[in-house]
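JOB MANIFEST
job_type = single_chain_structure
chain_count = 1
residues = 405
[input]
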Amino acid sequence: MKPPRNRAVRSAVHRHDHLSKQGLLERTFTFAFRGLVYAQIWEDPAVDLEALAVTPDCHIVQIASGGCNVLSYLTANPKAITAVDLNTAHIALNKLKLVAARKLPDYAAFHRFFARANTKENIAAYRRFVRPYLDDTTRRYWEGRDLIGRRRISGFARGVYKRGLLGNFIGAAHLLARLNGLNPRKILRAGSIEEQREIFDRDFAPIFDKAFVRWLTDQPASLFGLGIPPAQYEALAGDSKMAVVLRERLEKLACDFDLRENYFAWQAFGRGYQDTPDASLPPYLQRGHYEAVRDRAERVEVRHANFIDYLKTCPDASRDRYVLLDAQDWMTDEILTSLWTEITRTAKPGARVLFRTAGAPTILPGRVPDEILGRWEYRAEDSLDYTRRDRSSIYGGVHLYVLKG
């Protein structure tokens, strides 16, 4: 779900003639992903940390995205993390978070900046503690203006989680719900999982049966805000209507986990983190992890690079963990083979690869040659368990592969 700015990645998303309907959709998707997409990443770090089994000698290579999991993985004490991304906004956000972790004066300031992310004090803290330590490119990004003329750093005074492509998508979903007489925040007042289920069945589920919603969600462009390109849209829908698939994913988010322990639900239904002392937060924002994140932030290297191109610069058997998010969903067989060739070459024995898919099954068999994929063990039962427990609930599958030998 990263913006395709290099030739190899463009070829993964741009599969059709540019004047065809599908080709136009692919190029619209590319254009939409040039700015900030995710202020918060939507992969559950609790599941990730269990699956990755990080040890102190591990060098993790991962797609950066919004940076939440980059910083959260520091709580497991890895030796190093290399975070790569082709989206310059995500690169700037990762660098901002890392400098803020090191330079803001205390946990209260760090929590206010990224957990609340909606106070004027954050701008003053940026100017005093963060700005002097940013590189020129990152500083220019945050002090530059977005498409409607707002300085980007002002997002941390006005609710940064309401910005970006995903934030705008969630805002549009809230508007659609309100037009149908439903305030999505209502479910956040539920006192139990049973009450969550009751509210969902009574108030949320019927919206997906409305003709306009079914028509709207049948348009691939309607899900660009979720980071779903045309090829991934097809994998997500499968043989079902998209409204049915989205209802099932939202049902899991709303009903399968106690909302008091699921910050993804608060982002979806409340457009921000819960503002209470016991609020559910990503690991990097939890008080008990603050010192570890601050002290280990210098172990993270952020690179504006393609994942495959970065791996080509790495020595054989030199990396331990790989986190691909759901980027493989829109890769061609050729690019998948190139990616796994480099992963296999650079992986140490026992290395682990974690990724997600829009659909339920792993997408690799039959697409990556057996002589490469055969060197890896697919942890099928573990993967099903991780999928079940992933609180973000938007993916069909969470998959773990471990290098044999």
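[summary]
Strands lie at 59-63, 80-85, 300-304, 319-323, 347-357, 376-378, 397-403.
Residues 164-270 form one domain.
exit_status = 0
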